[in-house]
Amino acid sequence: MSTTEIQTVLPQPVEQDTGPGIAEYLGIFRRRIKLIVIPFFLSFVLSAVVAYVIPAEFTQSTKFKISDPGLTRKLTSGVTGGITHKPLLRTMSSDIKNRRFLGPIVAKVGLNEGFNLNDPLEETDFYAYVFKSLKITVPNQRERLAPGPDLVTFTYTGRSQARNVEFLNEIRDSYKEHFRRQYRRTIRGIYDQQRAAVRDARDALALMEAGYEDFRNSEDYRLVGIKKDHLKQMADLRDRENTLRFKINGIQSQLQAIKMQLRDQNQTSSVLNQVANPQRAILKAAIANEQQILNDWVVVKGWTDLIPAVVAQKEKIAQMQEQYLALPVNINGGSVLQINQVYTQLQVDRNNLQRELNGARDILGQVTRRIETLQGELSKEIDLTRADAKFLADIAKLKHKEAIISGKFDKVQGEWRNIQGEGSDLFETLDLPNPNTKPVFPSIPLFLAIGAGFGLILGLGLAFLKEFSSQTYLTPNQVQSRLTVPILGEVSEIKTQEELDAEQGRKRRNYVVGGVIVAIIAFVHYCYFEATMSHLLPPIVIDVFDMLYKGS
Question: How much is the pTM?
Answer without folding.
Answer: 0.47
